[in-house]
Write a structure and sequence with these properties.
Length: 300
């Protein structure tokens, strides 16, 4: 049979009476009148069908049944104290678990160092991180925070902008030797692309303001950003690649930037979370730390 809240309260009152030796002393400790304390003891004795105290005008002593019950009440009282102390410690030092969903490539390149430093700052916050380019269902997958590089669809989710990701068009030197360097939008349309499923059409703007919308086509299509970059580096076509990924490879001669004078729209990076969870201290700490680390500026 489940213990009701009223019974639990009566047990706590009983434990105080047993320890302090009088109804009045227990009442003063708990902020209750002597009559209320007496009521709780009476309800317990009626519930168990046993006397819990031997009473006289000068003393109050536990019966054998009362002694056995007190041992269990002491455990309850100790656990209540432990729970209070645990909450107090939590208020002072954050602890718990945060489940995070993050795109693979951006996660490995940028978020792993940030999360590593965050873990050093808050060692009692455990991080459960899913690296995936798929859009996570926060409610179904019990995700506390998702990093997304796209506008939110029509939903009840909340978001905080973390940074802006810039992009460029790249290809491997070997590919460009075989297929030539494109110099116009029309040239680009004739080239082979490594297609990243989550990109869609690529909007381009020339210096003179002329615009074009490219619909890449090629022999390789992937839903993984890291794989997209690897295939471009291997010479399988042109790709639209984030600056943070492309620039180190350009400096090493592994990739060449194509038509650098052409502007590509930047992508805003968001921290996405369920409504009502922004008051979570741990979640707010992570969002604020990530935003500060990324600077809210273009990620190169």
């Amino acid at each position: 049979m489940d213990v009701s809240f009223e019974q639990l309260k009566s047990l706590m009152v009983f434990g105080q009476v047993a320890e302090r030796g009088s109804f009045s002393a227990a009442g003063r400790q708990m902020g209750l009148s002597r009559a209320v304390v007496s009521y709780h003891i009476k309800k317990l004795e009626e519930y168990y069908g046993l006397r819990l105290f031997n009473r006289s005008t000068r003393s109050l002593n536990l019966t054998e049944a009362g002694g056995k019950l007190y041992k269990h009440c002491r455990v309850i009282m100790d656990e209540a104290q432990s729970a209070r102390r645990a909450v107090e410690r939590f208020k002072q030092e954050p602890e718990g678990t945060l489940r995070i969903s993050c795109p693979v490539n951006f996660g490995l390149e940028r978020m792993v160092p940030i999360l590593s430093r965050f873990k050093d700052l808050y060692p009692k916050i455990d991080l459960d991180i899913q690296f995936t380019d798929a859009v996570a269902n926060l409610l179904r997958d019990s995700i506390d925070l998702a990093i997304r590089g796209a506008p939110l669809p029509d939903s009840d989710l909340q978001a905080v902008r973390l940074a802006t990701i810039r992009h460029c068009l790249c290809a491997a030197p070997d590919y460009l030797q075989r297929h030539g360097h494109p110099t116009t939008f029309a040239d680009l349309d004739k080239h082979i692309w490594v297609v990243y499923d989550r990109t869609g059409a690529i909007e381009l703007t020339a210096k003179d303001g002329k615009r074009a919308s490219m619909h890449p086509a090629g022999g390789i299509r992937t839903d993984n950003a890291a794989a997209r970059t690897a295939f471009v580096e291997a010479g399988h076509g042109i790709g639209r690649i984030p600056r943070y990924d492309a620039d180190p490879k350009i400096r090493k001669g592994l990739l060449e930037e194509i038509m650098p004078e052409v502007a590509l729209p930047a992508t805003d990076l968001f921290a996405v979370f369920l409504p009502g969870t922004s008051t979570s201290r741990n979640l707010r700490l992570l969002i604020d730390y990530s935003k500060q680390a990324l600077g809210g500026n273009p990620v190169n």
